[in-house]
Amino acid sequence: MDITSMLGIFTGMGLLFWAIFMGGSMQAFINPQALMITLGGTMAATLINYPIHQVLGMFKVVKKAFVPHGPTAADTIKTLVKFAQKARREGLLALEDDCNQLDEPFLMKGIQLVVDGTEASLVRSILETELSFLEERHRGGAGMFDSMGALSPAFGMIGTLIGLIQMLGNLENPESIGPGMAVALVTTLYGTLLANLFFLPIAGKLKVRSADEILLKEVMVEGILSIQAGDNPRIVEEKLKAFLAPKNRDTVRSKDRGVGVAHEAASTPD
Question: Rounded to whole angstroms, how far apart are CA atoms 182 and 175?
Fold first, then answer.
């Protein structure tokens, strides 16, 4: 679970409720009609704007925003360095058993292509094509929440207009003015709140997650090609560490590095 995302939502909602209680009753801010107009209208417009399978997959997309998954870049680099060490000692075919035990499909596919003797240019082409379409799918998920963030304030304004029309149409009845004005103002509040505390922040977090995953996949591509080229494991490690921020590079130093270097020294002719 992403602590920062949950902390942001709970902090925002908590401060909002606190401000409301400090100013009066919570009852005035609960309006089912306003919620139907704002949230219902936003969802209806989203259904018009996107295919049904993408809308139904919304909850899986939200899960990606709040629940990080997959290995870190540092762990991936350590794995690739170990593969480079083994490939240098025993050959590329020795990686087949290790490849089948991987939990990352993208890395598994790349290593399998290398083990099968695929040319380096074709390996890069296949992996970069998959990476391109992965990025496109990520843009679609984030774009849906961006659209919802733009739509919900608009439907809040529609609710405001509905409330004003109802109020002006019943000026002769003073008792109807209050409910009409309540709908007019609360729908604007709901629309703005949904956009700025939920939809747009989720879209932003999805973009961050996408950038992190794309970077991780790029590390895998370069590592796989380096292994195929027979690069020294130390060179592989240094090349892949260049993808990381300087402060994160020390975490990559594997406990097995010394063992790998010793094997390198033993296997290198004088």
Answer: 12
pLDDT tens-digit map of 1-26: 678 888 888 898 898 888 888 877 77
Q: Give the integer Cα–Cα distance in Å for 24 and 16.
A: 13
- Evaluate if residue 83 carries a pLDDT over 90: yes
Report CA torsion sign: 39, 45, 49, 52. positive
**pTM for the whole thing?**
0.80
Does one domain contain both 188 and 241?
Answer: yes
Instruction: Compute the distance between CA of residue 13 and CA of residue 161 in angstroms, rounded to an integer.
Output: 26
Structural domain boundaries, residue 89:
31-270
Q: Who's near 264: CB < 8 A, 6+ residues apart? A: 85, 88, 232, 233, 234
Mean pLDDT of 141-155: 94
At 257, the pLDDT band (50, 70, 90 cuts) reads very low
Could you tell me if 77 and 101 lie in one domain? yes
Contact between 163 and 185 under an 8 Å Cβ cutoff? The reply is: yes
Same domain, 23 and 69: no
Residues 64 and 5 in one domain: no
Number of domains in the chain: 2
* Number of neighbours of residue 237 by Cβ within 10 angstroms: 24
| 18 and 134 inside one domain | no
Region 38-58 average pLDDT? 92
Based on the fold, state whether residues 10 and 51 are members of the same structural domain: no
Crossing angle of helices 233-241 and 200-229, rounded to 10°? 160
